[in-house]
Design goal:
The structure holds two protein chains of two kinds.
Chain A lengths: L16 H34 L2 E4 L4 E4 L3 H7 L2 H32 L6 H7 L2 H4 L2 H12 L5 H8 L15 H26 L4 H9 L4 H29 L3 H6 L11 H11 L3 H30 L3
Antiparallel strand pairs in A: 1-2
Helix pairs in contact in A: 3-8, 3-10, 8-10, 9-10, 10-13, 12-13
Chain B lengths: L4 E4 L2 E4 H19 L12 E7 L4 H17 L3 E7 L5 H11 L5 E3 L3 H9 L7 H7 L13 E3 L2 E2 L2 E2 L7 E5 H6 L9 H11 L15 H13 L16 H12 L13 H9 L5 E4 L2 H9 L7 E4 L18 E3 L7 H10 L3 H9 L10 H4 L2 H4 L2 H5 L1 H12 L17 H7 L1 H10 L5 H17 L1
Parallel strand pairs in B: 3-4, 3-5
Antiparallel strand pairs in B: 1-2, 5-12, 6-7, 8-12, 9-10, 9-11
The chains are: A mainly alpha, B alpha+beta.
Chain lengths: 308, 452
Amino acid sequence: MTTAVLASPAGPRPFSLQRQYALLGMLLIAPTILVFCTVIVYPLITAIYLSLFSIYTPTLQGHWVGLQNFREMFGSAEFWTALRTNVIWTLGTLSLQVVFGVGTALLLNQNIWFRSLARSLILFPYFVSTVVAVLIWRWMLNDVYGIFNHALLQAGVVDMPVDWLGRMPNAMTSIILIGAWKYFPFVVIAVLARLQTIPPQLYEAATIDGAGVWGRFWDVTLPQLREVLVVIVLLRTIWDFKEFDLIYLLTGGGPVTSTQTLPLLVYKQAFGMNSMGTASTYAIGMLLVLLTFMVLYLSRVGRGSEPT
Amino acid sequence: MRKKSTQFRGVPVSRRQALWTLGAAGALTAATSLPVARPARAQAQVTLRWWSPQSAPAQLAAYKFQIAQFEAAHPGVKVNFEPTSDEGYPAQMAAAYASGEVPDIVTHIPSFAVASYFDKGLVEPFDDVIKAIGPEKYYPNANKTYEIKPGTFTGTGIGNTAADNFWVRKDLMEKAGITQIPRTWDEMRAALQKMQGGGIYGAPLPFARNSATSFVVTTLIHGAGGQMFTPDLQVAIASPETEHAIEFYKSLRELCPPGATNYSWGEMITGFVSGACATGYYAGRVLANVNTQNAAIADKITCTLYPTISKDVPQASVNDFPSVFIPKGTKNLDSAKKFAAFLFEPEGYIKQLLAAPGHVLPVLKTIGENPTYLADPIIKKYPKEVELMTVSAAAGYNLGFESAKHKPNTKSVDIIASEALSEMVQRVALNNENAKVVIGDTAKKLEAIMKS
């Protein structure tokens, strides 16, 4: 190495090049670590700390209760009901997002008319603000002047307007469908990008081997999409599991608590019941559930990708 | 190995030098971004943040006028209006207090919320402001709900609101052969059944998990002759009167639009004003909205007090006593007090009241008798209705102040925010659960809130 620094026996020993690089590396990584600690580690530790107290939200005053909040959470029917609702919502909306997303991506990968325009327009639900999307949907689903009920009444399908958001199972079905509509473009973007990189020779070879449309999809496309689908499912599971605004604005968790997922329960405890300690406990519970899902899922994926 | 270098303005720069420079620049940027490194800047002017859930366009115009007048009279003070909502203010206030970023002045939220915040030491005493406004100008006992301790006021009313008027369409009543406005629940249900049909529903009552449903069930429990708390604030909701109220509420479900399971205040007023429902449960804003949004029925509406279970139970109004108060923690207390008092200056106050005539009724008798206020076309057009609302609101009650005998209930905002009351309605009306069991569960929830 031409730039090595030699130690001088007379003067103070200068930093070696290796040490200088190490210091430089630490200096360069310091802002990242600082940001990471500020936005991830600090809130996480604060949430764990708060979960050990009974705290009145507006004043943030409270007293130590230790693990009592956790005992109450695990013994609370509301927590388990919210968890069950959360799982139903996540599985329901995620499945539809993947099915619609892959189907639409396959369509947009074909040489169809106005393909560029369609590729742009398909992103609209994903980019539109959730509040705006919910207002539009609530308007369309309105019992008195909503277009859906109007169309059903005009067509003679129903005698009375349908209560889309205030009755079960309509409320859960509606939020799952609207969630799928809102977020399936994410799947489209990711899958479409991958579809464009699949070598056409694979399809040619499969065709020569006698594979039909379904065979080519099952034996060529799907294996090629596997990795991107793993990432999509992982990310969307996390995002859907902690979805708050869409559900809160559409149903508020109702009727009664039929669509109350864990994030809504955390919000209710923090700002409805003004119990920040309990809310933090539920948030930690939610984190544990997500971590469990992630570990299970990643271990399964890891096993599946091992060479046989 | 040859060191990689590039040129910067003709000077060769090694990769190591470039990285060191980049690192130093990053460190410098981070250091200068820290608040401690920033020199304290003298605040050029005071900025007041004003929150209110009342923010219809006409009201915003009136607020703008009041703000402009105040800023002109107080150079160096700027006022920013920030709308909140009837459903959202408990959460927003809780978050504001928790973060230490409180608004400097809050208006139009119910008096019981102010009492709750005061109880937790979160409200500045308001005595100075009432003195500045002039106690002699108020209607008698206008500030009774704010006197939480003798001689100590938590806020003042910016108006009175009779929240639960029974609005009816006279033309639909006539068409259905109903000669008198229903006085009892049986009469009301029968009238609604007769008027429902042809795309028109009986009433736009809410069955959602929100404050609107909590207000309606409060009206009905009181209308059954019951109370939610004893005068010394023991939970008293588990009573036959509550059962009657809940069963009556449930029986109205088939007379309300299907989507009423998600209704809040906005849908309730729209349901009546648009003509979709024959009756309504709302405050005086109906008058202005009908005249601007559906003038065809403007001469066909009237209101009375909400029916009760029988003629033996007197009718009364829920008044949410829209307030003005100053949250503890404001950094501009003096300016906030000046602005709070300024809100009652006749020119601006009348503009504000007339932005929703009949909805927010004056608390100052000097304004109630003011010719400019009385000259408003809506006030002139509906004198009987405005008079009824004015009188009933002044004698009204709410969850924080159930009767003259009751102690102020400082847990009311927690009760409303917990949705315990609206969940009770949903469980019985939508899930068909046993009313007695559900009311028992609700009583336990209320007891837990009262103990918290």
